[in-house]
Structure prediction request, 355 residues.
Amino acid sequence: MTVIITGGAGFIGCNFILEWVREIGEKIVNLDKLTYAGNPENLAGQDPDVYELIQGDIGDAELVKDLLNKHQPWAILNLAAESHVDRSIYSPADFMRTNVMGTFNLLEATRAYFGSLSGKGKEKFRFLHVSTDEVYGSLAPNDPPFTEETPYSPNSPYSASKAASDHLVRAYFKTYDLPVLTTNCSNNYGPRQFPEKLIPLMILNGASGAELPVYGDGLQARDWIFVMDHVRAIREVLFKGTPGETYNVGGHEERTNMEVVLAVCAILDELTPRLDGQSRTVQIKHVKDRPGHDRRYAIDDRKIQMSLGFSPQWSFTEGLKMTVDWYLSNTIWVEKVKSGAYRQWLDLHYGQKDK
Ligand code: NAD
Ligand code: DAU
Prediction:
């Protein structure tokens, strides 16, 4: 009774594993390359009989084959990815290698492994691919939210690479009967997110007195989901989803970026006021917009609600407060992730934007 997860040292993966160990307790093997976004300390101290980390690349065919043969998993959860849109604009090749070719390699190894199964083992087996709402592209203000039927229309190298991986996953179902499941989720936030993404960046910059860089007019909208709700949705789909189906997952919390930044400022002002008594909003700075910036995402999640009984439980207000608290309380974690590589990213990305 083993599952293999990829990318489990990243933000969503580590929260998934922590919950899995607590609630399910089946052995979980984490294949993670440990890129800048992977942090093994997120999972330090887990029982080695239940959790095992293998440092490696999902694109390494021999390694993946050996892992499947050794652990004989009943499920593979694919979370490994290059996940940051801004980085995909500077270095798209990494995104093609991991998100497209890595997923392809994983599917090929899984196809061979699945072919070796029989009886109940074959019936139970699942390949769950964790994807994003960004594959659907951008919505106009009055467009209806994305459904599972919305045509794919990715706009960044990141979302194009995720769209390609989703198509491969679908093709392995249609062509080889591989029992795949795909989730397309909206923006996650919560503890242990690498602080290159909007919410943790705003929390840490806000707390330290640095600028709060808002791209363009800041009126782009995202649907925010607390990471533990996404983790629960992935589990529901794994246990109850129908092979070949895709499921949209959202938080029912659409907000503009300015609304998010103002909400972070308000919590920081309450929990850790600036010494000069001013609000953190004085740190907001509008900077050059992201190229190809998607204006709006919104999720219609009636399918997962009606077929699997899943709906998010955390409100944005509760989840954001909890998240700000977490970053303010976990200063050692924060200092460790602010490594040389992180500072280089800030210089490359925000240094250029200011010019
Ligand atoms: P993350 O960037 O925090 O973590 C990615 C993890 O993948 C890291 O641990 C990294 O070391 C690992 N990894 C990268 N390349 C690898 C490779 N070639 N082989 C093995 N491991 C590799 O990402 P996240 O935010 O936790 O996202 C996880 C998944 O969920 C991704 O597939 C992402 O596209 C998807 N997703 C994310 C969000 C979000 O808001 N964060 C929303 C919807 C979907
Ligand atoms: O929608 C799901 C996606 O959400 C995931 O698939 C991606 O992996 C995840 O990174 C996220 O993508 P976004 O591009 O929406 O997230 P990000 O946190 O980078 O940005 C959120 C919004 O905030 C976006 O409109 C850009 C804006 N932004 C971001 C940063 C980092 C700013 O205005 N300033 C910033 O400094």
DSSP finds 13 helices and twelve strands in the chain. The chain has a mean pLDDT of 97. The first strand starts at residue 2 and ends at 6. The pocket of DAU (ligand 2) is lined by residues 83-85, 132-134, 186-187, 197-198, 201, 213-215, 220, 222, 257, 290, 297 (CB under 6 Å).
